[in-house]
């Protein structure tokens, strides 16, 4: 009798362990995590199959539109007809959506952790511009006078995503550009370029992950640099005239997404958006320099954006919400 009781207890223990194991669904796919953690990155023309690592009795897949806020305010919506172990998503319809699956197996019901179909980096190539304080003045958004002898560092905001680049010193005549376009800077194929001569700079680049998928920087995002011996360059003592701390914003004006910052700062402890009446209308903490800020809910107008780096530097900029 004692032996039977021990066996029964052991069997019940195994049953509980089995049920618990069945209640921990996990999503997998061939490219999950290959570029970004918990994200599937695939080309716009491709499909990708999501699946659970174990089989269950029933399935219901859900998707949720991506949002920069945490927690995400968008609802989870059941995917119509998605009731099998696998779900096929595609680069046209499913980019920037989170996915999860709810499973049942006997008395067990559970949801998987969410994953992201991440193609956002492909949609908006952008350029980060590092100007040395005191060596430039802003003429208008996207145009700067720069002291002769100074340099301006231009960087692709998504260096991990894009491979070969074509850098330009003026606006190219076609998109994609002709290999003989006179605006092409010969030999400039990296994800950064150091400008030291007057011109209008931008780039065309192909994603490293999808070599046939290429993007041209928007012409309004090209930056115009005028190098010369301007009055602000020296004070007569050889010292550089100080300049108000400002950061490059892109795009400006904007309707939805705004990028701020520079790679050398890496991150900002706080980013505050203030309207012209002095009211704080949006704030982000621990903001990474290459992450978009969604300003689509702001009323069209001019705003001040104040950014504080981790080491205490403060930058002040204005941008226009269209």
TrEMBL record:
Pfam families given for it?
Por_Secre_tail
| Domain (Secretion system C-terminal sorting): residue spans on this chain | 249-320
Q: Which segment of the chain is annotated as a signal peptide?
A: 1-21
Which InterPro entries does this entry report, sorted A to Z? CHLI-like (IPR045006), Secre_tail (IPR026444)
What's a GO biological-process term for it?
chlorophyll biosynthetic process
Keywords, ordered alphabetically: Signal
Quote the protein name from its UniProt record: Por secretion system C-terminal sorting domain-containing protein
